[in-house]
Amino acid sequence: MSETSFGKKSAWLSLEADERDRVFSLGEEYKYFIDTAKTEREAAALIAQMAAAEGYFPLEDYLSKQRTLGPGEKIYALNKHKSVILFVMGQEPLEKGMRIVGAHIDSPRLDLKPVPVYEDTDLCLMKTHYYGGVKKYQWTSMPLALHGVIVKGDGTKLEVAIGEGEEDPVFYISDLLPHLAKDQMQKKASEFIEGEDLNLLVGNIPLDGDEKQPVKAGILEILKQTYHIDEKDFLSGEFEVVPAGKARDVGFDRSMISGYGHDDRVCSFAGVKGMLDIETPKFTAVGMFMDKEEVGSKGNTGSESKFFENVVAELINLQEEDYSDLYLRRAFMETRVLSADVNAAFDPGFKSVYDKSNTGFLGGGLQVTKYTGSRGKSGCSDANAEFLAEVAKLFDDHQVTWQTGELGKVDQGGGGTIAYILANLGAEVVDCGIPLLSMHAPYELLSKVDLYMAYKGYRAFLG
């Protein structure tokens, strides 16, 4: 086990002479990635674009027999524009197992309700419903952007991103001034701002006319004329409210990055970069970049859907003349998985919630988490010792600085990832991701060297 596993050495000090420049270069690539991909749709599209540029072809090309499946073939499979899976076919048949890095591309945010627009006291606002685990008060008093997709009656699809350009307007959720906050300040933090109070302020100028809600009427007119959005489009559209602006370097030494959506687009990015480096591995390499993890991985774009199993079955069918469901079952039983998700880094401002000797540190490298769950390992995926030793040796052999840690003290809380889903299929799985500060805040914080070690670790694991 590496020295850093016990928090004795910073990953910055383990870099080879030529690696520091690569750490910062990778950080710049990552900032572009999360600035461009602020929703799961945008992330899936960008990952598919990156893959296609490196010689990956859509699954449909193989199913239609336009391309022949063989070792080294590179495939991407998009699922309803919200999740994407990359494959590099191995020298061994799929029945012999896969090497998977599995991450998610959705992040905590606010979603617009289906009937969002209303007016109150000469202000036009939009109603929202928060998505994932958030501290609701953190979403007030900051510039916000609106990203979404509209599908018109004729099937035309319109993508919207308002608030990211230099000349774009931004949006805002107000908070109570401290002079009048006597009662508010007596409440628990979870009640400072109620979910129904997360209403997006979008306008103030009334339309000159006889309308009962003239400010709303004015906003709807702007939406129609400028963005081609009708009020009825909100009924079937998908709109997400996210922090406006770009990721930024943090610290005099620029060692860290502040940005929206590190959880879990940072592990997704590291996984994509690892996949793009693979040529012809022994075992098929897979990068899973999934939706809906923040709300339980449910639905037809989450990891609990049958999409991944169905795609693997299709690929086995292309490999085997006499397809059998047994091949699929054997494939998963022989598979090895890194469940790539972030974890909480030790925060010196909140020492009481951490077991310092069993917590990851910012700058400590890639973090391995043997088990997840909460309070008595409830709902956990717990890696087997044999597989954990295998992963540890692999990382040490490839000079990947890594550390171990769990999510806080035993009775403090906890959390989970997609690890249990693949473990339920019989695969060997361990959680392995990047430690963050301010996880699930609108702006989270990571160390660039941890991102680099994640990339190195995932690349080595994939083959």
CATH architecture annotation name of the largest domain:
3-Layer(aba) Sandwich
Spatial order of the strands in the main sheet?
A: 1-2-3-13-4-14-20-16-18
Outline = globular
Number of domains: 2
Q: Main beta sheet: strand number and arrangement? A: 9 strands, mixed
Strand content: 15-25%
CATH superfamily of the largest domain: Zn peptidases
CATH first level of the largest domain: which class?
Answer: Alpha Beta
The count of strands amounts to 22
**Mean pLDDT over the residues:** 94
CATH topology of the largest domain: Aminopeptidase
Q: Low-confidence parts, pLDDT < 50 over ≥5 residues?
A: 1-5
Number of helices: 11
Distance between the termini: 21 Å
Tell me the helix content: 25-40%
Sheet/helix structural class: alpha/beta
Rg (C-alpha, Å):
23 Å
